[in-house]
Amino acid sequence: MTTHSHTLPANFEIGIAELDTQHKRLHALLLRLRDAVGKHYGFATNAILDELAIETRIHFAVEESLMRMLSFPDVESHITEHQALRDQLEKFRKRAQDFEVAEDLASFTLQWLNDHVDRFDREFVDHFLRAGIDPKAAPNSK
Ligand SMILES: [Fe+2]
Ligand SMILES: [Fe+2]
Prior knowledge:
The protein has a single domain, classed as Hemerythrin-like (Four Helix Bundle (Hemerythrin (Met), subunit A), Up-down Bundle). The chain is 73% helix and 0% strand. It has helices at 17-38, 42-69, 75-95, 99-130.
């Protein structure tokens, strides 16, 4: 394994506080997942996968309902992207104890999040802001 930076990538924040908070939480969970898999900690891997399942469900539900509510035109292709990650996490769950496969999946999933936020989530930001959402409305962000 090569060494990895634990810092957030450049261009990670999209400027909508609640979504940025959720993205950071997902990013942190994926780093913990990669770490647990790398150490072959099977129980921790399963526990983190459970947490990820919950956090991704919440996050995708928030984005998808905002896109629908605010009539974002590319909602269907965006949801297809989310579905790809849901499928990936499902695959992960089945292979989680096969640590070599799981290491690849952990790196892939982390990269997926970084790319998705930068390429897909960024695309709805202007639309949301024009529709009048408050970019600072957020839970207590860290
Ligand atoms: Fe997102
Ligand atoms: Fe998204």
